[in-house]
Amino acid sequence: MSNFKLNILIAEDDKDDAEMLIEALRSVLPSGNCIVTKNGIECLRYLKTHDAPDLVFLDLNMPLKNGISTHGDIYNEDLYRRRRLQFILPLQI
To answer: Does residue 38 fall inside a structural domain?
Structure first.
């Protein structure tokens, strides 16, 4: 089995929803590394200061900056190409 690890960034303000998503992801990607941010501002800060994740899940309804606005900022700030971010998935649990 490969030692390849996916780094997955989850922007979700609800702790229970984040834990449920992590559990589901680990059932299909057991070697995945999940990082959770609580809102869009933290998500953007993470993307600007860390290596790019392989996958990003954005909750649509978060305080301070929702998923739609966060997605727009990622696109407008060119974090797709600069960080080679491959996937943005709006998430509504």
So the answer is: yes
- pLDDT averaged over every residue in the chain: 85
Our count of domains for the chain comes to 1
Has residue 80 been placed in a domain? yes
* pTM of structure: 0.84
Q: Is residue 1 part of a domain?
A: no
Q: Residue 12: left if φ>0, alpha if ψ -120 to 50, beta else—which one? A: beta
2 domain-assigned: no
Could you write out the three-class secondary structure of the chain? Answer: CCCCCCEEEEECCCHHHHHHHHHHHHHHCCCCEEEEECCHHHHHHHHHHCCCCCEEEEECCCCCCCHHHHHHHHHHCCHHHHCCCCCEEEECC
